[in-house]
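XRE family transcriptional regulator
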Amino acid sequence: MARTANIFARVEPELKEQAELVLNELGIPMSNAVGMFLKQIVLQRGIPFEMKLPKRSPLAYEMLSKEEFDNEIQKGMDSIANGQTISAQELRAELKRNFGI
């Protein structure tokens, strides 16, 4: 067996669980996935994916006060009442364009 070194990293429990679910479906142990990531860093001489800030950040409701949250909800209700709606397909395209999601 090849020599190995330990890496310790702190991550959010939810992120770890979500990643484990995906990796389990792929049949890849977490340690192998980390090793693959590090190998790609070496091969590509950098982070192996594009990193950039989104054009705009989506509104994070957990950062809003109750009053700010209520105002945002009211804006949405007013838009609906004024007929300012878009289809789900248009919404997906806008989210991808504006936030990359």
